[in-house]
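Field guide to reading this record: the first block holds the primary sequence, the second block holds the structure written as discrete tokens, and the final block holds curator observations. Each block starts with its own label. This record concerns ATP-dependent helicase/nuclease subunit A, catalogued under organism Companilactobacillus allii.

BLOCK 1 — SEQUENCE
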Amino acid sequence: MPEWTNDQKKAIFHSGHDILVSAAAGSGKTTILIERIVEMLKQNKSIDNLLVATFTDAAAKEMKDRLVARIKEIINDEEIDHELKRHLQEQIFKIPSANISTLHAFCLSIIKKFYYVIDLDPNFRLLSDDTERSMIQEQAFDNVRNYYYEKDDEDFLNLTENFSNDRSDDGLVEVVFNLYNFAITNSKTDEWLDGLSSNYRVNKPFSESKFYQNYFIPQLSKSLQQIIDESKGAINIANDDQLAVNYVVVFKDLIEQLTNIELNINKVSYDELRQSILDIKLKRAKAIKKADKEGVDTDILESVKATRGLISKQLTTDLINDFFLQNEDGTIETMNLSVKLIEKLVEVEHRFMKEFSKLKLDNHSLDFNDLEHKAVLILTSSVDDKKVALNYYQNKFSEIMIDEYQDVNAMQEDIIQLLSNDDNHIFMVGDIKQSIYGFRQAAPYIFAQKYAEFQKDENPNELINLSMNFRSSGSVDDFINAIFMKIFDKSIGDIDYDDNSKLIEGTNFSKDVDSNNEMYIVSRDKNVNAVTKRQSQIEFAATRIKELVDSKFQIFDNKHQTTRDIKYSDIAILSRTKNNNTDLISYFAKAEIPLMVTDAQNYFQTTELQIMMSMLQIVDNPRQDIPLVAVLRSPIVGLNEEDLAEIRLVDKSDDYLTAMKSYLVKNTDDNLKNKIKTFFIQLETYRDFANKSSIARLIWKIYQETGLLEYVSGMPGGKQRSANLHALYQRASSYEETNLKGLHQFIDFIQRMEKMNKDLAQPNSVEAVDDTVKVMTVHASKGLEFPVVLFLDVSHGFNTSDYIGDTLFDVDLGMGVTVLDTNSRIAIHSMQRSLIAAKKKVSTISEEMRLLYVALTRAKQKIIMIGFEKDPEKLMNSWDQATVQENGVLDEASRLSSKNYQNLVGMSVLDYRDRVNNDSKYVNESAHVTLEIMNEESNSIESVKSDIESSAPQEVSKKFKDTVNKLINFNYKYQESVETTAYQSVSDIKGLFADPDDDNMGDDLLSENGKYIKESFSKPKFLNDTNKVSSAEVGSATHLLLQKINIESIPNEQAFKTLLDTSIAEGTISDQVAKRIDLNSLVKFYQSDLGEIILKNHDDVSREFPFSVLMPAKMLFKNSRNSDYDDERILVHGIIDVVIELEDSIILFDYKTDNVNSKSIHQAIDNYSGQLNLYAQAISAIRHKPVKEKYLYFLKINQAVNLSKNNN
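BLOCK 2 — STRUCTURE
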């Protein structure tokens, strides 16, 4: 029998009351849960009388397997009496059908057994596919929308206008769906929805309303106290510094003002309170003489100054803008407008929910949310005045066990509490520090409430803390503890990281092995964008992994107390998202590092899936050029580029299928004709088969007759490719079990899955090599462990979408809306929305902290963190600005303003005192972590440029001049090819792509205006008017400002003016050019919808993105005078103004400074369409992602054009 700790014994043997086990990472909670079940079985209890709820099906299966193994171990290894042995053997046979499952699966069993209680048709199927569910959901809303449009309902039109824009009503659709997803996890969904407008129903005086007293004042008090605490922290630092001491009086004065406001907060009206906030004066410190700074460390001074700047922002943004923007009359007026909107929205929501339920029932289907709601309805419903279902389960179960209790939602908690009574109790095990499923409406506050309640002396229930970490080395534990002692508390994180939460080493790691943790900040000062940031980190990660393996880094085997050389399989690369996976696969292949990606992106972009989807598309409709040509070019048919070109030359105007038929009539190439004829017969066979048989059988027939399965098996990664094709076949089989029918609908279904990034749940590699580096997201890593964890891209920004949206939801506060004033067209955030946003920000940062905890606690011996920062010195100075509160935790403002994991870790465990010999290396010995700045070398071209410019002209002889003249006048047969550079800019060839479907280029392509063939060089510099400012110069300068402006917040005119002044001082923009720049137009851009997209995704934005791509010369020069060079390729280079790389798609922007008006804009759009089309082709090829949208923005008239829609 294992040696259990005292706390583990409590968790295994205590009973007779509810028990909450807070089990830290590596504490063996699953082992404890299994041992508790075994002990109950030893007491002659039956597995039938236990409900064990797990979070996933995989966890349920693992628990059953481990339980069987443990029981067999007892039967075989322990001396037990015959009766107990026979009882345990019976339990083994019962385990497969025992109630060890997810809560959803248990709810399904309730419905199947007691469906008659609520008159439910038992012949239903589970709607487990998100794509099918979303299609039914969209149909439901379409029906509801049509209902209101047919009625010409004015309130609905106003609702649509408020939540959408003038281009579509997608905004309202999103609000309705988001509201549904939030509300449905509440067992009293209708009641909660009907109460959404209650917090908006206020009258004067506002200060006497329930909303004001219960929600507004507590949040305001919290905000004021936060600033007071920051000021006190700044005073503590400033008092000890001869320079910063001048700031003490500044912060003391502010504390006095805020304290007075706090004392009178409930004694004054809202308008009086508002005025007192507006009257706050933040003084400036006494100026410090330059001479006083000489020879003195100014780090503390800079830190205190930064704190003052942060507080100044909080006073304006967080207080005035969010809570006191309007006076009492204006605030109440906004609330009254909100009431009308919300009431209509709730009406629409109810109608949508009924229609959605109707469509599901018509399809004889239920989704996962229905399972929970129907189960609750069954448990609370009576038959002959008896709650038969509830009585059955309460009598059946002697104990209810919940694994991963931190991730239950409110609905699931209601189900658990319903099943419990005085005769059975609930055993809950989990770790609130690992609650990372907020996007599934997990409610960690439920765990937190019980954690607090169960500690009270008067509470009969029990809290057990398991803090011993049997996974990690002491160095890893110390590093993690050092971080979370500084960032976790009840206000942010939902729990204090005290002695009950700290990790305690439960291993016996050798002190001789390297278990020190590493943090690297990769830095470069040139060509910094989202792509280069990511690639720089990946390159360094590969380098560090190679170093570990090549140096034979020693891994400690805790079980056998020995060391061995590291293997690739000892290393796991974790990241917050899957965005890095494509680059990782590519770069690690070049570095010859074996890699296994468990959740790779772009499954649909694999060659074999592209071929098969193209084949299915043309079986459905052969008059689709792109999929048709894809199949013809594929191994299925095997045509080459010359064959395809020959076919197209026969008929340039009709679709490609018609051209193929024309070729059969007009041409004499028997070989190509035979290929086309064979293909037509094959295609017709498949089209006929598709009308008579299932999609799955069609797919298999194609596999068999084309040999595609065998072909891809012989390609690199062949087994995986074969598995991918099998997955498509299996998806088709499961699709046909739904009510969706037909090939066309199946294709639409798959395309929707691709858009939703579902990737058909890509099959695990069947050729997974044991010795590979594992790559996965933090979510996917939960429950796993690795000797070395490399946490990549820790500088990636947190997801802020949960609290920056115009419409937000909260269990208590209800709904926060943004109201559009139809007269002024100004959108106003309601106060409720601001309060919810503040609350959501805390919950978002809390969950990001928990994700950090999960990532770091996967490590057994070493943690390596890699991030990026252009200016590391500035970054680390910002870490020193964080102040420590009395409880030892960093101030709330610093934690809430953290934008990534790099900041959270840096300001927790590193500061300027850890610097080694003033070098770019920092060491915190107590936390066992070393930080190093890794600067990339950048080659300067300045010296080369200087040499060229300083070269003096040289005299040449007459003979040399004659030779040059002969060469110049030589009539070369292929002169056109010589004059056409192998390198072309996009601006040179943009006209080619004005119409993506235009196969004919006119002679104007070779004209002087926009020609591709250069007959002469441009005028030398001395012939140009150097005093005149050109439009191109103004355009370039404007682009420079847009490239350099800080987009982490909305840029105002002052920000652009400061940047312009800096650029003038640096000599990058001249005074003459600066006078021509319209800064107001730049400000307006960032106030537009497009500007909002950039600001919202600022971490994924690359500005002035350079690219180069090879294109066939014949594609560019179809009217060339010489056709001998059709096989040549041209290198096309360009720079894209803005690239936003989302997880599964790309958005492009291009600014234009042209002097356009309403009449000339259409011509301008035509002029630039080709340029954007080429940009889209290039970036899509480079990043292996589709371009979702591409925009032109004309700065002079502040007008955006969506070319994605124009091309449709």
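BLOCK 3 — OBSERVATIONS
Residues 128-362 form one domain.
The chain has five domains: 6-99+397-466, 128-362, 517-598+775-798+863-935, 607-761, 975-1028+1088-1206.
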